[in-house]
Every structure is written in C-alpha cells, then in structure tokens.
Design a protein that fits this description.
heterodimer, A: 444 residues, alpha+beta, 2 domains, 22% helix, globular, B: 477 residues, PmbA/TldD fold, seven-stranded mixed sheet, six-stranded mixed sheet, 10 helices
C-alpha cells in the first residue's frame, strides 16, 4: 500500500495531467484512541485508523475541493478525474488567487513526541487515575473523556511545495459531581506524556464541585467577573473565529474595525501561534504551504492583524499569515499574554462580584455587532471582599464581545492550556477580570 | 461492499466479542458556496468506511477505519477489544443490550431528480438567482453580507449484527443554508441565519421556491432593521410563539432532556445531563394542550429514517402527552437499563461515529386554533415569529430565545415590530403556561450536535403557533 506522501504526489500529478492549474493535496494518516467514562465507570472505548487525501484544485479561476478516503491508486485517479470534470463546470471565483510559490523555509519544531506508542491499556489506566483522584477528593460521580491522537501529515502543491509534519497529543477533561447541581471541570492536555496530568484534572474537577454545594439563585444585573481558564478560553475562541478574514468578509465577525484601531483594553494581547512548541495544534505549514508563524491579532488593545490565507490576503490587501484553510483561514493555537497578578491577588482586585469557571452554548444574536449570550456551567461563585461567600446557579452571560474586550482588567500571571468539547482551538489562557458583565437568569 | 462487513463481524466474534455490529457507509454529494455574490468554492463530498461496535469483557468498544483491507480492519477491531479487556473490574460498567427483533430489510427514498445528477454549475446558477433576488429586494437599506450554501448528498448504508439483522438503505438529502446581514446607517445591522432541508431529490429546490422565499426574508429583515423598537417594559404579557420558535423549544427543552443516555449521565462531561429523572415518567410537566412528538417516519423529513443505526424499526414517540411525561428516547443500551423496549432512537453521523441516542423530527402536535383565534385572545402581548440567538443549560432547564421578527400585539392585532424580545424561562414554567395550540404545523431543518467526537445529525424542529400566558420578558433589568 502506498503511504500518504506517495499518495499526495500521485494526486497532484494526476490533477495536473488532467488540466488543473493549481493543486494542493493534503494527506494524513491518523491514529486516535478515546476512553469515555461516566458515573465512575468506563462506558466506551474507541479506536480509529484513518487515512485520507484532501484536495484543492484551481482551474480557470474556479476553485473546488474534496476529501477522498478511498485511497487505492485506481480509486484516487478516478476521483481526481471526476472532481476535475465536475469542477470545470463550476463558476469563476472572482477573488481567486494562485497558490503561493515555494519552496519555503520551514522551521522544524523540536521535542516532538509521538504518543502513538502508548498502549490502549496505558490510556485506560490514565482515565482510571483521573476518576480515582476525583473520587478521593470527595466527588460522588465522575464523567469525562481521554483522547490520544497521533497524525502524520504531508502536503504537496503544484507550486513547488512538498512538506510533511506530525502532531500528537494526549488530553482529558473530567467533570466531577458532588450533588446534582454541584459540579466542576478539570482539564489536562499536552503534547508530551511528561506534562500530561490526569490526576490534576480529576483533582481540580472535584475541588470545584465540592465548593459548589447548595448553590443559590442570583439577581440579573451587571457585575465584575473573574473568568477562569475554561470560560475565558471559550470566549477567546469566539474572538479568534471573528479574526478569520473569511468571517469578516461574510459578515460573521465583530472585528470589522480598521487595523490599528483600539478595540480592547491596553493590557490585553491575543496571538495565534502555529509554531508554539507546546501547542496541541502546531504545524509548520498551512494548507497552502505557507510556513505558519506567530501572529498578533490584538496587541495591547489594538487590532493588529486578521488571520489570512492567500485569497483573503489579496482581498484585504495584505499578506497571508499562514492560517489557510483553502476556504477559510483559522487559528492554530490561541495564546493570551499573561498579566502581572497572582490568582489570589485577582480576587482581592475584584473585591465584589462573581467568579465563573466554565460555560457552554455560546450563541450570537448578531455576529457583526457581537451581541451574544452563553450559559454558565459548573462552579459559579459570589465574591465579597475578595473571598468566596457562596456558590451560584442558573445564570447566563448576556453581553457584547466588543464591550467585553474593552472591559478586560487584571490578568493573572499563570496560564493553562485548555482544549475540550467547547474549546475547539487549543488555548493558553490566564484568569481574567472583566468589568460590568451582563448576567441574566430565567424570569420564571 | 458486504464482504468486508461480514469479515469484520466474524473477526470480532472470533476474537473475544460476545456481540458485534458493523456499519458500512458511503456518502456521495456536492455543495456550492456563494459569498457576497462570488462563487467562492464548490466541493465534492465522498466518504466511505466501516464502523464496528462490540460488547466484550463487559465493556463496549467502537472501532472505525477507511482502510478497508482485512489486515487493517482486524487490527482496528483487536485494539478496541483489547482496550475493553484492560478496563479494571472496579471501573468496568457491565454493558448489555435489550433484546430486539431481528430485522431484515432493504429500504430507500425514491427521487424524481437524482441528487447527484446536479452539477456545480446548476447549483451556482440557483444561488446566483437567489443572490439577484436578494439584492433587488433591498430598497432603502443595504445587504453587505450574503452567504448561501446548497448541498445535496446520498447516503448508502449496510448494517449487520451478530444477531442476524441486515438492513440496507439509501437516503438522499438536500439542504439550503443562508445568512443575511442587513445594514442601514444609524440603524446598525440585523442578521438572519436559517436552513431548509429535506430527505428528497433535487426537485425539492423547486418546491421551496427559494428565490421568492429569500426575497421575502430580505424585505422582512430590512423592515426589522428600520422599524423595530425596543421591547415593552410591561410586567406581565402574553406571548404568541411562531412555529420556528416552538420547534427549537421542543428540540431543546423536551427532545434533549428526554434522551435516556443524558438521564443516566452518559453525556455528563460534554452535552450534559437532564433535569428529568427516571421517576418523573408519568408526572405532569405541561398544560393539557401540550403534546410533544419525535417521529423519524415523517415522509421526506430531514431527520427521516425507517431503521435506526442499531437495526431497530423506527417509530413515533410521544414524549409529552397531554402535559404528562410519556416516554424517553432509547437505544438498546438504555432500554435494558430502564427495562423497556428500545424505540429506535440510535443514530450515527457517519461511518466513523458511534451510534448514540438522537432526536429525528421533534415537534409540538397541532391543536384546533387558527392564527387569528390565537391572536384574538391576547389583549397585550408579543408575537415572536422567529429567532436568532438561543441557548439552554446542560440540564435543559433554563432556556433563552431572542426574537428576530417580532411584533407587539394590542387587542388581538399585530402592531409595531419589536427589536430582540427575550424569552428567558424554565422548562416547566414554559410548558405549563401554554393555553392554546394552533393548527399551522410547519417544520425547520437543523443539524443537532451531541457526542464525543461531536456528531451533527439532520433533524426537523417544528410545531404550530402557540399562546403562552402571563409571561415576563427576560434580559438585563
């Protein structure tokens, strides 16, 4: 059987032979294992082995894409021919830009660890460690997921790019319950076994759950809020989706200001970094072959860059930031610069308000103006004079993203990698204090 | 196609599985995306692979691959079985399935126009006609952002299990998604996001009359932008909810909390649990006029199927009947735990996803009222015809819907457009306050997300208009 590097070579050559002017083929071989658990028991074990070729073809300014997962040479040749035959009848894309010309200099990441060597038994043991630690800390019920992923990727383009990389990660998120309405979440995710700490995820989840016993309802209004890493990562994922130039062009972004505008607090800086050494989603090249890099999106409160592929870059009269996506550019790893505050100092700075640990279900009323709401989940705490006085339940953040960005106050110096079901792009995030957050609840 | 499925089944059974099922799935289709009038990209959809689920050593394992040689399929199955075996005794959940009749069926949905006979050119021509109609429907406002996506696809499946079931199916689906952003200086923006979808051939795009439909949507969005005023501050008012809002309510606060896997906690770490407990079966949760149904067998519905992904015959489920909690959504895993029969609610997004409990087409059963009769009974209130923003907590108890096209009602008549009225309310309070249900049943298409890895499956959400008494609008004071 041909490997994925040979397959991308075959696909690109076949596409050119059939008249394609621009071709990019991204091949991957992926091995993923997952352990899911709930009520302190392991509920299902999953294992995937997938190999596939994604392809983008440019022909007479028409742009068409596909993913092939029947990967015998005969099937691939047939699929390429079918795609070109169909694609020729497509309509011209007036924003079409040819693929960037290589060769490029790629900077290899060091200290890469391929976690595929971990056995299924090892992964089950790590899940059991997380469950046991949460139970030892006082949790009554523990649920969660552990994922081990390993992927080899190769890209070949008709513009003189032939490059490969590999990524690997080990992640778990744990939700512990003490009572029906008392829950907490802990996360550990890493690109190395050494930094993967399932026991810390279990401990953190149980600690928060214990603190949320007997939660009270709360009054709607505006409050100063400390956001824990999970919720801040979710909110910042939405900011970075808004930073995709495709979304700005489609009206799906509140970051439609001039580059250089003051759009956030001066102490706030958010960056995309495809080269981050410990980034779960780092890769040395994007889908067009452009080397990935560190791109400041908001620097000290100013909008510095959007995220671009070559097509959006041309439209916005700038350069690709190495974030392709053949259709839409997107972030690799989100990095929020740390602040100067110890976490306990942040609570003293807040004095009175709320500390919210987690959220889910963020939805927009209007992507362009940034009006949205999101439901708070797990530990929510009322703070008085810098101390937690009670836990709170059943509240929702109802606010506006541009307003929140301008209201970020103190930021912690410690940061944490977060990725879980509600945080798709890995995010290195601190705790953050944000002023006058709109809090609402059910009226009946 | 069938050979590798039979091989996988036999291999799993001869290597430690005491139950095995195999799904071979092939998806073929294409999509076109038009952004701001520009044919951005067209895509060919081609997926093919195998998913194998086993019960072994008291645990459940799922393995999947698209590399369909016997050696690789065998290795994949062995990995799932050996991981299942390695679960220590104390943390093992001894899983079993409810018994179910053996199915042997071939079914498909016939089409007038094959979904795969339509080229990218025809797809873009339709989208460009919609684009033209949209632009020409903007009179004194602008529509700076338009995103249109049309997709057609056919899914072929073979399911077989170690109990002797064999189900083969072929299902075509067509969907149309649009996002419109209207703008006027001094008024800001207003957005509309919506989807149409059916299990049908390409002929459905004519039945939808998309050009006129989107033109109407454009004109209404412009009116909302220009004319809508802030919601009233009245303490108590009645709310008339349109079909689109009723559909999302039934999906979010009835369908999801009635999923038995949530009730037992299986989805606790991700999609969450449920405020419903098994003992609540038979309890009153809504007024007498409230009956909420989930029915996969509605012809041409977006969530249509005749056999689920455990090979179980599909059927209508009355989740809430005349205000009482009537039944939950089950697969074979939860059915045995609840000591009931499965009601065929197991679905999987693709060959590489574990089948789990899902809704199909969830809606409120229609009543006897005409729309004008529902209105006549309101002296002061709000008609929330559709919505943009919505969410609900992970127990499915506290929910929020923010209206888009919404009107003030005075003495039974529609008056001013109202900007973004908010209904923020608990599930029992909402269902208990419904006093009248309309005749005007209609449906909307959506993709519902759940599971890990997350799976998006096609569903319909629907209902008639309903009247909800003595409400208060939510939001910030």
């Amino acid at each position: 059987m041909m490997n994925h590097e040979e397959l991308v070579d075959l696909v690109v050559e076949e596409a050119i032979r059939n008249g394609a002017e621009d071709v990019a083929a991204l091949g991957s071989l992926q091995k993923t294992r997952m352990v899911r658990f709930y009520n302190n028991k392991i509920s299902v074990i999953k294992a995937w082995r997938n190999s596939g070729i994604s392809i983008m073809i440019g022909l007479k300014e028409r742009k068409f894409v596909s993913s092939f997962n029947e990967i015998s040479p005969e099937k691939l040749i047939g699929s390429v021919k079918e795609l070109i035959k169909l694609g020729e009848k497509s309509k011209p894309n007036y924003d079409y830009v040819p693929l960037p010309k290589g060769p490029f200099n790629y900077i290899e990441r060091d200290h890469k660890e391929d976690l595929a060597y971990l056995s299924g038994k090892d992964l089950v043991e790590y899940a059991e460690i997380a469950i046991e630690r949460a139970l030892k800390e006082g949790a009554k019920r523990v649920a969660g997921t552990l994922i081990c992923n390993s992927e080899d990727i190769a890209l070949k383009t008709s513009a003189n790019v032939f490059v490969k990389d590999n990524t690997s990660s080990l992640e778990t998120f744990v939700r512990a319950f003490v009572e029906k309405e008392s829950s907490g979440q802990g996360i550990s995710c890493s690109t190395t076994l050494k930094n993967f700490k399932p026991e810390i995820a279990g401990l953190e989840a149980a600690k928060i759950a214990k603190m949320t016993k007997n939660p009270k309802t709360f009054q709607s209004g505006r409050y100063n809020v400390i956001f824990g890493p999970c919720i801040f990562a979710n909110l910042m994922n939405n900011v970075m989706e808004a930073a995709s130039a495709f979304n700005v062009d489609a009206g799906l972004s509140f970051l439609n200001n001039e580059i250089g505008s003051n759009i956030a607090s001066p102490n706030f800086t958010i960056v995309d970094d495809g080269t981050a050494k410990d980034g779960l989603n780092s890769r040395i090249f994007d889908d067009e072959g452009t080397p990935t890099k560190r791109t400041i999106v908001i620097g000290h409160g100013k909008l510095k860059n959007l995220l671009h592929n070559t097509s959006t870059a041309k439209k916005f009269k700038t350069y690709s930031t190495g974030n392709a996506g053949w259709i839409s550019p997107s972030a690799w790893n989100i990095i929020i610069e740390n602040g100067a505050y110890e976490e306990n100092e942040l609570f003293k700075e807040l004095k009175n308000g709320l500390y919210i640990t987690n959220n889910w279900y963020t939805r927009f009323q209007d992507y362009r103006n940034g009006d949205f709401s999101t439901v708070c989940r797990d530990g929510i705490f009322e703070i008085k004079n810098g101390e937690i006085i009670t836990s709170v339940k059943n509240i929702r953040i109802s606010d506006n993203f541009p307003r929140i960005l301008k209201s970020i106050g103190a930021i912690s110096n410690n940061r944490y990698w977060i990725r879980w079901w509600e945080v798709a792009t890995p995010t290195l995030t601190p705790y953050a204090l944000v002023k006058d957050i709109g809090i609402t609840k059910s009226v009946f | 196609m069938e050979d590798i499925a039979r091989y996988a089944l036999n291999y799993a059974l001869s290597h430690g599985a005491n139950y095995a099922e195999v799904r071979l799935q092939r998806d073929n289709g294409s999509a076109a995306l038009l952004k701001n009038g520009n044919p951005e990209v067209s895509s060919l959809i081609k997926n093919y692979g195998i998913g194998i689920r086993v019960l072994a050593h008291g645990s459940m394992g799922f393995a999947s691959t698209n590399i369909l040689d016997r050696e690789n399929v065998s290795e994949c199955i062995l990995e799932a079985i050996s991981m299942a075996k390695s679960v220590s005794g104390r943390l093992r959940k001894n899983i079993d399935f409810s018994s179910n009749a053996v199915s042997n069926e071939k079914w498909n949905v016939t089409t007038k126009v094959d979904v795969n006979s339509i080229g990218f050119d025809e797809k873009f021509e339709l989208l460009l006609d919609i684009e033209k109609a949209t632009i020409s429907s903007c009179n004194d406002f602008k529509m700076p952002n338009r995103l249109f996506i049309i997709e057609s696809e056919e899914t072929e499946k073979i399911f077989l299990n170690s109990e002797g079931s064999f189900v083969q199916s072929s299902v075509p689906r067509v969907s149309f998604t649009y996002i419109l952003t209207a703008y006027k200086a001094g008024k800001g923006t207003a957005q509309r996001f919506n989807q149409k979808g059916e299990t049908k051939g390409w002929e459905v795009t004519n039945e939808w009359n998309l050009i006129n439909f989107v033109a109407d949507e454009t004109r209404i969005l412009g009116k909302i932008l220009k004319q809508a005023v802030a919601p009233p501050k009245d303490d108590r008012l009645d709310i008339l909810l349109g079909s689109e809002v009723v559909g999302i309510i039934c999906h979010e606060s009835c369908g999801h909390p009635f999923e038995a896997d949530r009730i037992i906690g299986r989805e606790a770490a991700e999609a969450g649990e449920s405020f419903i407990s098994p003992e609540m079966l038979g309890q009153k949760i809504g007024s007498d006029v409230v009956t909420v149904v989930d029915d996969p067998t509605l012809p041409n519905s977006y969530g249509f199927y005749l056999y689920d992904d455990e090979g179980v015959k599909a059927r209508r489920r009355d989740l809430i009947k005349n205000g009482f909690i009537n039944t939950f959504l089950h697969n074979r895993e939860t059915a045995i735990e609840f000591e009931v029969e499965t009601n065929g609610s197991s679905r999987s997004e693709a060959y590489n996803k574990e089948p789990i409990i899902r809704m199909a087409n969830t809606y409120m059963d229609p009543g006897d009222y005409k729309l004008n009769e529902l209105l006549e009974g309101i002296s002061y209130g709000i008609f929330m015809k559709n919505f943009m923003e919505w969410n609900i907590d992970d127990k499915r108890f506290n929910q929020r819907y923010v209206g888009l096209e919404a009107y003030e009602i005075i003495k039974g008549e529609l008056k001013k457009l109202i900007r973004n009225p908010i209904l923020e309310i608990t599930t029992p309070a909402l269902y208990s306050s419904v006093d009248a249900v309309g005749k005007d049943l209609s449906f909307n298409a959506a993709i519902c997300g759940k599971g890990d890895p997350q799976q998006g499956v096609p569903v319909w959400t629907g209902g008639p208009s309903i009247r909800v008494r003595k409400m208060r609008l939510g939001g910030l004071p």
